[in-house]
Structures are given as structure tokens and as C-alpha cells.
Design goal:
Blueprint: H1 3-8, E1 27-29, E2 35-37, H2 38-43, H3 45-59, E3 63-69, E4 72-75, H4 81-84, H5 92-106, E5 108-116, E6 122-128, E7 133-138, E8 141-146, E9 151-152, E10 164-168, H6 180-183, H7 185-203, E11 210-213, H8 222-236, E12 253-256, H9 266-281, H10 301-324, E13 332-336, H11 346-358, H12 364-370
């Protein structure tokens, strides 16, 4: 591509068709005998619930662009094109959801820059599946090798000529983040095995399982035994035949030998699996439907939301803010607005507005904006408390 074409922005820097932007797959067999990969992990309801809860919540929050001006931050009215639509195939919400999908499952999100604007800033972004990218060092510089054979250099604020941005989760080596799924594959495998066991128990098992004892002296042939077994399974196995009374003839008796399901602690194991996955993603169990235990995340909805934002969402939001801010002009940065998640009930909100307004650190129009109300002329002025308008006289 010629320099003039690049300057006009006529062509993409990188063709997005080089990449598979669908779901990648990795596999790992666990001790429970189940195979854990991206798709099977998401079939475990607690994993799906945690991943979608975090990604849906963060991707639905508004994002603002600011510029640092001394110690203050000033809103930037003109946002980058990729903040509205990162590429022709995705909205901003879908893009963030895709990036979080990669982070929450793989511990890494790789964003390739496929086009730039007339000033050389990124204009088109795609999230590349982490399974297709290998991170290595070439001398003192990190490089990304794609499965297509292409090699990309990292994009940073100090090296804006790079083609790929990496958002990294917890890392042991500084090269790549650790996959939460890989770190908990045994727990996820156990949960999958429990689901499979439960499904087979109700779908194929005989709930009154045991032994048919024939009277002494009766010696049935092999064909008779096979026919008896087929007939027994037809009448008494499966959910639709659960708890039917067993009718036997010819002096045969039924001797149950199966351990009851509750005695095998099956249900308790299932509950423990839900708690384990919630612990993995630091999600309050009650937010993914586990309401049997009292929560330690606070006694009120507001307290629980604060804990959820602080300990669950904020670490992922901060990672996205730090990295995506590097794509903006120097001095600008992105900020997720989590105020909507921290709102209490109406009475508590109005009381906090009153404190802010009467003490002069928020205006009445700012309070209206928090409630999604239009500004009113004359309400932009800050009220100054009378007892602080003039310095108090010192008494001897």
C-alpha cells in the first residue's frame, strides 16, 4: 500500500479476512474423564452464567472519553470512530462482549488493528481468538505469531506503529495471561461429569435398581434371562417409568441394592460445583441463582452491588480502560461509567444529591443528569453554604 493511499485511508492496513473471528477451541481431559474446552466449559451452567453476567454487565455500561487537564479531567466531545463501531461487523457493545469473552475464558484478548484514519490512529479493530495467537519474545520485544503465519508487533502508546493490542489477565510470565478455565479445569470437569451422571441417571437408570432373585431350583435359560432383562428395562427404566411398582411372577423377588441419590451426596456435590465456579470468577453466588445460603456481600442491594462492582467488575474494567486508552491521542483516556450500578433506592439517592448540592460540590443540573433528566436554565450554579461564604473571625 502506497504512503498516499495510507494517508487518505483508502485501504485497510491489514485485511480482516486473514483471521478467523469465530470461537476457537482448546481441549484438555480431566481426571473425571470429561474433556474441558471452551465450548464444553460454557455448557456448564455456572460457567456460562458467570461469563455472561460479567460480559453483559460491562459491555452494557456507557463509556466516556476524557482528557487530562491539570488535576481535572475534561470530557472530549469528539470520540474515535472505533468507539462507535469498532468494525463493519460489530457494534461497540458486541466488541466489548467479544473481548471479555476471550479474557474470561482464556485470560487474554488480542485486538488487531486493520485500518487507520488520516492521522494514523486506529480506525478499525477486530478481536482475534486467543487460540490463534502465540506470544513470544524476539530479543527485548514481545511479538505475536498468528496461526496464519503472520507476525505482529504490539501496539502501545510509545510504539503506535504496532498492529496488535493485548489485554492480559493474571500472568505468571508477563507474556500472556493465565486462562481461568485452565486453572479450574478439574472443578469444571467434575461439574460436567456430575451433569452427565444426573442426565444418565434420569434418562437411562432404573430408579428402583437392584437384583431379581429367582426361586431356588429355577434355572432359566440364557434366552429367558435376556428376554426378562429387556422387558424389565422397557417397563421400569427412564424418567417416565420412575417409581412404578415392580410386578414379578414365577416366584421371583426384587432386592434393591442401589445407594439412594441423596445418600451419595449428589445434590450437595452439585451445589458445591456452583459455589466453586462462582468463587473462580468472584461472582456473588446469589447473582447466578444460588440463593440457598445467606450472602456475605452485604445486607442490602446497594451494598451487594458495590461489592460486585469493586471486586468482580472493576479489575476487568481497569484492564480494558488501560489498554484501550492507548489507542486514543496522548492525554486522552476511556472511563467506564458504573454509577448506574451503584445507585441506591430513590430516597437514598435524593438524600445524597441534597448533601452534594447544599455543600456546593455538585450542581442541581448534575443531579438531574444522574436521574436522566434534561438540564434546566439557571441550575448550573453551585450553591455555597452561608457559613462557609466568608472566613470565620478568630476570637482571642
Amino acid at each position: 500500500m502506497s504512503f498516499l493511499s495510507w494517508l487518505r485511508g483508502d485501504e485497510r492496513a491489514i485485511d480482516a479476512s486473514d483471521f478467523n473471528i469465530g470461537d476457537p477451541m482448546f481441549t484438555s481431559t480431566t481426571d473425571s474423564g470429561t474433556t474441558v474446552d471452551q465450548h464444553t466449559a460454557l455448557t456448564l451452567v455456572p460457567v456460562y452464567a458467570c461469563v455472561t453476567l460479567i460480559s453483559d454487565t460491562i459491555s452494557s455500561l456507557p463509556v466516556d472519553l476524557f482528557r487530562r487537564q491539570g488535576d481535572a479531567r475534561v470530557a472530549v466531545p469528539r470520540t474515535p470512530t472505533w468507539l462507535e463501531g469498532p468494525n463493519p461487523e460489530m457494534s461497540w457493545r458486541e466488541f466489548v462482549d467479544r473481548a471479555l469473552h476471550s479474557l474470561l475464558l482464556y485470560g487474554n484478548a488480542f485486538v488487531v488493528i486493520t485500518a487507520r484514519d488520516n492521522l494514523g490512529f486506529p480506525a478499525e479493530l477486530y478481536v482475534v481468538p486467543p487460540d490463534e495467537v502465540t506470544v513470544r519474545r524476539d530479543g527485548n520485544r514481545k511479538v505475536f505469531s498468528h496461526s496464519s503465519g503472520r507476525v505482529f508487533t504490539p501496539y502501545t502508546a510509545s510504539r503506535p506503529d504496532g498492529e496488535m493490542l493485548q489485554v492480559m489477565g493474571h500472568s505468571a510470565d508477563g507474556l500472556a495471561g493465565m486462562s481461568p478455565i485452565d486453572q479450574a479445569r478439574q472443578a469444571i470437569g467434575l461439574g460436567l461429569a456430575q451433569e452427565k451422571f444426573g442426565a444418565k441417571f434420569f434418562g437411562q437408570g432404573t430408579q428402583a435398581s437392584g437384583v431379581v432373585e429367582m426361586p431356588q431350583g429355577s434355572v432359566p435359560t440364557q434366552d429367558q434371562l435376556a428376554q426378562m432383562g429387556m422387558e424389565f428395562r422397557r417397563k421400569y427404566s427412564g424418567v417416565e417409568n420412575a417409581w412404578k411398582p415392580i410386578v414379578l411372577g414365577n416366584g421371583a423377588t426384587w432386592k434393591p441394592i442401589t445407594i439412594p441419590n441423596d445418600q451419595a451426596q449428589f445434590l450437595e456435590s452439585r451445589r458445591f460445583s456452583v459455589a466453586e465456579i462462582a468463587r473462580l470468577y468472584r461472582v456473588p453466588p446469589h447473582l447466578i441463582g444460588d440463593v440457598e445460603r445467606s450472602t456475605s456481600w452485604g445486607s442490602g442491594i446497594e451494598e451487594q452491588n458495590i461489592g460486585f462492582v469493586t471486586y468482580t467488575l472493576n479489575p476487568w474494567i481497569t484492564r480494558l480502560e488501560d489498554k484501550l486508552s492507548q489507542l486514543t491521542p496522548r492525554g486522552q483516556f476511556l472511563k467506564w461509567n458504573v454509577n448506574g450500578l451503584l445507585r441506591g433506592d430513590v430516597a437514598a439517592r435524593y438524600q445524597s444529591y441534597q448533601v452534594g448540592i447544599t455543600n456546593g460540590f455538585i450542581s442541581r443540573n448534575e443531579a438531574r443528569a444522574h436521574e436522566d433528566l434534561a438540564p434546566v436554565d439557571g441550575l448550573d450554579d453551585f450553591l455555597i453554604p452561608v457559613n462557609t461564604s466568608q472566613p470565620m473571625e478568630q476570637t482571642a
